[in-house]
Amino acid sequence: MQNNIGRGAENILASNIDIDEQAISLLPESCKTLTLRKGEFALREGETCRHTFFIESGLLKQYTLDNKGREHILLFAPEHWFVTNIESVHFNRPSNYTIAYAKPEVFS
Q1: Phi, psi of 53 (to 5 degrees)
Q2: pTM of the predicted model, to two decimals?
Q3: What is the C-alpha separation between 45 and 100, in angstroms, rounded?
Q4: Rounded CA gap, 14 and 86, in Å?
Q5: Which of 3, 21, 61, 88 keeps 20 to 30 A from 70, CA to CA?
Q6: Both 77 and 88 in a single domain?
Q7: DSSP string, 6-64
Q8: Whole domain around residue 81: which residue ranges?
Q9: Do 55 and 75 have their domain in common?
Q10: d(CA 83, CA 55)
């Protein structure tokens, strides 16, 4: 992990919320770049979430597993989206779902 934040996240924040340049300039100090491959996890069910993830490229999926091990996808987070587990972050509780890298399949 590196201590930087992509220009994409800065641009999205600046264009969608009222935030000044000074606040945006503080982001790199508190953000890290995480590179995932297909099947790798940003957050596993049961872990306490401590981050909000901005997807610079690729696709993340947020899902739960039922008692038979079947995956139930709650959402896909494409490029230029933010994803987190707000309840886990805010209340410091274990996450009830997983956030993992997913690569879309191509069918013909």
Answers
A1: -105, 135
A2: 0.75
A3: 10
A4: 21
A5: 88
A6: yes
A7: -HHHHHHHHHHS---HHHHHHHHHH--B----TT-EEE-TTSBP---EE-SSS-EEEEE
A8: 35-108
A9: yes
A10: 8
93 pLDDT higher than 90: yes
Asked whether 83 and 33 are in contact (CB, 8 A), the reply is no
Angle of helix 21-30 versus helix 7-16 axis, rounded to 10 = 140
Q: Are 20 and 56 in the same domain?
A: no
Report yes or no: 4 and 28 within 8 Å, Cβ to Cβ: yes
The per-residue pLDDT for 30 is 58
pLDDT in tens, 22-77: 877 777 665 667 888 877 899 999 999 998 888 888 889 999 999 999 999 999 99
Please state the domain count of the chain: 2
